[in-house]
Amino acid sequence: MRAGIVTGLRTFELLDVPEPAPTEHGVVVEVQLCGVCGSDIHAYVDGWNYPPVLCGHEWIGKVVALGSGVTSITEGDLVMGGLAPGCGACTYCVAGHTHYCKPASRAYNGLVDDASPHGGFAPYLAADANRLAVLPPEISPTQGALVEPTSVAFHAVRQSRQAPGDTVAVVGAGPIGLLTAQCSKLAGAAKVIVVEPNPERREMALRFGADIVLDSGAGTRAEVRELTKGVGVDLAYDAAGIPATLEASIDLVRRGGSVCMVGVSSHPTEVRTNRWMTKELSITTSFVFTLAEATTVAGLIVDGRLDAEPLHEATVDLDALPATVEALASRELTALKVLVDPSAG
Description:
The chain has 345 residues and is α/β, with parallel strands linked by helices. It has helices at 38-46, 91-94, 102-108, 141-145, 147-159, 175-186, 199-207, 220-227, 243-252, 273-279, 291-302, 321-329, and strands at residues 2-8, 11-16, 26-35, 58-66, 78-81, 124-128, 132-134, 167-171, 191-195, 212-214, 233-238, 253-261, 282-285, 312-317, 337-341. The model has no long low-confidence stretch (mean pLDDT 95).
């Protein structure tokens, strides 16, 4: 079978790979849909040493084969992949920080001997059962493929210092920013302000729970001050992960407020610590999510309290995927979320 993989700088290939078989504690999943993540595009553009298992990690699929030692999952279950629970024995687990389990992190990043040679841009993949979340049977393939990015946003809100009644800014209205705005509103934000230069994405932000949308620019800080009686927002989420959006997030926050860094960047960022210190800012960061959070998010999507489906703007097959990755990288294609059907065509 074929699998789509970033193999180098500006290089995305469809490679022939063996059809997977389950390990003793693993399963084989038939992939229904897999989203193209911003990190897939960053890896393609910047030439990251990108683990193949992460290339296509926003997938939903049906379990079609079980290893002999698997008892937590049954054939036919709908599942998605994430970070496994703590092993209970590594230094982080023993210290009580199971979410940062070293073996689980290595497995998630494909740094173990039996790691899958590819991610969800393939008709089938193999995965350890302990890093799968079972999704509600009534969830649609499109909804299921969006559980992963929604869980990233959900985890960010939980990691942040947001409190009920806070006024919040989300800087950047890409998929993660839009989902963060929605999760922030669900968590009790009194007012959500989204800052985004693209007018179409500003319009989309209103559908995702934003109360106010602002263009980014030299006047944004003054606009936010006016909206907050001269104070600034309680919390800003940097959802783009570039130096300009981190600077903007710091500008918009009141003294004593906080910034949560959600967007991921591999580029150096200059930090003027005197600005952080004089404001007495709290900085939090957020990365990935727990399987329990993914299960919760799936339930919130099914019952309608979270609506991620408007992000979905295109579906392609494997043959079209290399050109689609290049089009997203060059901004020739600006779709918020492209899903891949690896069995189509």
